[in-house]
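Support reply, case 0932

Customer input (verbatim):
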Amino acid sequence: MAEDTKDRPAASGAAGTAWNDPKVPGLRLRYFATKAVWYLFYRTKVGRQRNMKLGDFRFLSLTPARTKAKDILAKVANGEDPAGEKAEAAARPTMAELRDKHMEYAETRNKPGYRKDNEGLYNNHVLPHFGAGKAVADVTEAEVEALHFKMRKTPSQANRVAALLSKGFNLSEKWGWRPRKSNPVHVERYKEHKRKRLPQADEAFRLLLAINALWEASPFFAGLVELLCFTGARRNEIQTAKRSWVKADGLHLPDSKTGEKIVPLSALAREVIAKIPEVKGNPYLIVGRHGRKHMVNVTKPWAALMKAAGIEENLVPHDLRRFFASAGLSAGLDLTQVGGLLGHMDSQTTKRYAYLLTGAAQKMADTAAESVKEIMTGGGKVAVLRR
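Our regenerated output:
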C-alpha cells in the first residue's frame, strides 16, 4: 500500500515541538535535537494515562506508525493496557540481574574466591542456558532440570550449578522477584567420585627431582611446589602468602578458607622459604611473572613439571596436599593432629585423606625423598614428609 501523502509530518522540526496526527487520536511525532520519535497517548478503561513510545521516525514512517497505533488502540478498547504491560515486563528482574545481585550479596559474606568461581558458573553455564534477559520469575523446574542434565558429563560442576541456582532463587524470593516457595531447583544431585590420586613412591621421587632441576630457572614455582609438599597448605594460601607472615611459630594467614590460622612450618619448609629469592618492593613469597604481584596462573608450569617428572596420569597441585596428609597419617599421626596441620574444621574432612600409603610404599617414598634431599643439599640425609 502506498504511503499517505496528506498531512505528512516533516522529518525534522524545532526541538521540543510536536506534530499531532489528525487521523489517529493520540498519535504524536515529537521532535528532539537529533531525531524525531513517535508516541501514542491514550487513557485506559480504568482512567490511567499512558504515553507509549512507538519508534524512531527514521525507521518507522507515517503509515506503519498509524497501523501500529490503531492496533494498540484496539487492544485498549478491549480493556488491555499494552504500555503498562510493557513497563511491567521491563521492570521484572532478569537472570543477569540475579547474577549481579547474588554476587554483590555474597561479597560481604563469603571469601573473595567465591565470587570469582560462582560468577564463572553464571557466565559459562547459567546465562547461556536461560538467556541473560530471561525474567527470574519465569524460570521453570523443567528448564533447571534441562541444564542439570546437559551438564551430566561433569557431575561435580552440575551439582555446583544446581546449588548456586538454589541459593540464587531463594534470595530472589527474599527480594520479591519470585513468589514465596517457588524455587524451581528440585534436581536430584549426581553422585560424585572423590579424587583418590596420590603420587606413587617412584612418582614422588621423580617429582622432587624435577622440582630440584627447576630452582635455577623458576625459583618461585619450584618454591611453591616444595612448600605444598612440605606444609600441606592449599595452593592459594602459599601463592598469596607474604614474607612478613613467616613467624617463629609458623606461617600466619590473616584469612583463609577456614578463617585466620597458622600453618606450621617444618625445618624443610623453612629451608625452602630461605631459598626463595626476595624481590625488592614485592612483599610476596611466590612472586609473579612480572615481579609486581604474587604468582597467579600455574597451569603451564605445572604441565611442564609433570612432563619433566614423567607423570602421565592426571595429577593436580591439590594432590600434594593429599599426599602430605596421607604421609602424615602413615607416620602415626591421628586424624585430629593431621586435621590441625591442614587447617580442617573437623575430622570428617580429614577422613577423605585417610586412604593411606601401604607400609612398603611409604618406606620407598621416604627413602626416595631422603635421596632427593641429599642431592639437593649435597649431603646429609633428612626425613621428608614425616613432619
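We compared this against your earlier run and they match. Two observations from our side: Residues 155-174 form the longest helix (20 residues). Confidence is low (pLDDT under 50) at residues 1-5, 349-362, 375-387. Please reopen the case if you see a mismatch on your end.
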